[in-house]
Write a structure and sequence with these properties.
By secondary structure, the protein is an alpha/beta fold. 47% of the residues lie in helices and 12% in strands. Among the domains are: 297-364, no CATH class; 366-442, no CATH class. The strands form four sheets. It has a seven-stranded mixed beta sheet. β13 and β14 (288-290) form a beta hairpin.
């Protein structure tokens, strides 16, 4: 998840401790923000001003978070070869580092984030804000976001034209992420597009190749980011993988959104005959929303109440997940997502179900979560069991009930301070499945 504490310390303020002025008392030359970033931008940034349109900088903008992102970008580049291809923001070999122009920038540091942004030729204050945004982004996602910032900066300054964009990765509807990679929240993307409003206003067609990004209630978060959108393609249920349908859907979408074609041509029927076609939902400015059957919110709430026991039984370990892609808990999760995307869902229900959504997806992938938790905290667990005089179990194989029993057994054994520390970690992590302990990128 994004480091919100860091984001707060790097947001521009008017406080004397975090501001500096350039050029004496002239208010037009004041730069507000993180002092270290301001100093670097002041010394190294060279704003270009409005730029001439580069005829070679057109095409689809692609942001991918998974291991096959390069394959999807290559596919889009070929599909759109006659109109600029595709420019991509992809996972790098080293997370949160980006090599460009013969230099490698460590984007986890103030100096690295600022010096990268200083290569983009943005106005000074915008450069400070972009660097602060990048520094405050979630671990593992800064390398992809830096590439996207570079693309948006070109559009903002007039050198690039963006008309179509694809966002690809895993999702629960509020963010996208990649396997063992970073997470980018849609709220974060809204902040980023607010920094580059001219670029955001260029985007006419958006595709989200990611699970649970569709549904009528979700479409507003995308038109809020990109106010001139003509259409959105997304998924109100699970989306296909790169080699199991995603690139087929991208081809259908690319043809339907070619320049000059009517927005009304973007509808779920484009995917007919392909895998997971039934999960596609769309919005376009001519026909509005099209997608899953529009049940009334009271009907969905009634279904939720009838399936509450499914959630409770899996949470307690009375029932184990045997198939991550189907079964009672996956059906419950799909229902939760459907309610969250409903335009009439009351705010109190949304808050409750957002928490249940995050718990449920971790229950669905509990074996995977347990394995990654054990690997991430192996030293802490080893010290804990040594202190308690117990043999350490293999949490990757215990299942939900076995894990809960093991946590209770370790707590009852007593032990030393190391044991108490691990019990707390296990309770917050594998028992309560807290987002702060179990990153979404683990599922």
């Amino acid at each position: 998840m994004p480091d919100l504490a860091q984001r707060q310390t790097t947001t521009p303020t008017t406080g004397a401790a975090t501001s500096t002025a350039v050029g004496g008392a002239d208010p037009a030359q004041q730069l507000l923000g993180n002092q270290a970033i301001v100093d670097i931008i002041r010394a190294e940034n060279k704003p270009t001003g409005e730029r001439k349109r580069d005829p070679n900088k057109n095409g689809i903008v692609y942001l991918g978070m998974n291991g096959h992102a390069a394959d999807e970008a290559k596919k889009l580049n070929g599909l759109n070869a006659g109109s600029g291809g595709a420019v991509a923001a992809l996972p790098q070999k080293e997370q949160d580092k980006l090599t460009t122009g013969g230099k490698t920038f460590d984007l986890t540091t103030e100096a690295g984030a600022a010096r990268f942004v200083a290569t983009l030729g943005l106005p000074n204050q915008l450069a400070v804000q972009a660097a602060e945004f990048l520094l405050g982004a979630g671990a593992g996602a800064r390398d992809e976001l830096a590439q996207l910032i570079r693309i948006l900066s070109e559009a903002e300054m007039g050198a690039r034209q963006i008309d179509r964009m694809v966002l690809s990765g895993h999702s629960v509807g509020s963010m996208i992420w990649g396997d063992d990679n970073g997470e980018i929240g849609f709220g974060e993307l809204k902040e980023l597009f607010d920094l580059f409003p001219k670029a955001a206003a260029q985007v006419q067609h958006l595709m989200l190749s990611a699970c649970y990004t569709g549904g009528e209630g979700k479409m507003g978060q995308y038109t809020g980011m990109m106010p001139e959108l003509d259409s959105v393609w997304a998924y109100h249920d699970s989306s296909p993988g790169t080699w199991t349908g995603a690139m087929d859907h991208m081809e259908d979408w690319e043809k339907a959104t070619e320049r000059g074609k009517a927005a009304g041509g973007v509808d779920p029927g484009l995917a007919a005959g392909t895998r997971k076609a039934a999960n596609v939902s769309t919005w376009n400015k001519e026909d509005g929303y099209q997608g899953d059957k529009p049940l009334e919110i009271w009907e969905l709430q009634q279904q939720l109440r009838s399936q509450q026991s499914v959630f409770d039984q899996h949470l307690s370990g009375a029932v184990e997940v045997t198939d991550t892609q189907s079964g009672p808990l996956r059906a419950y999760y799909n229902l939760v997502q459907r309610v969250l995307s409903h335009r009439d869902a009351p705010s109190a229900l949304v808050a409750d179900l957002t928490a249940k959504r995050d718990t449920t997806i971790r229950l669905i992938f509990f074996k995977l979560v347990s394995s990654k938790f054990q690997a991430a905290h192996k030293d802490t667990l080893s010290a804990a069991y040594k202190g308690a005089g117990l043999a350490q179990p293999d949490f990757a194989t215990l299942g939900r009930k076995g894990t809960l029993d093991a946590i209770r057994a370790l707590e009852a054994a007593g032990g030393d301070a190391a044991t108490a520390k691990a019990v707390d970690l296990l309770q917050r992590g594998l028992r309560d499945l807290q987002v702060e302990v179990i990153p979404t990128s683990w599922v």
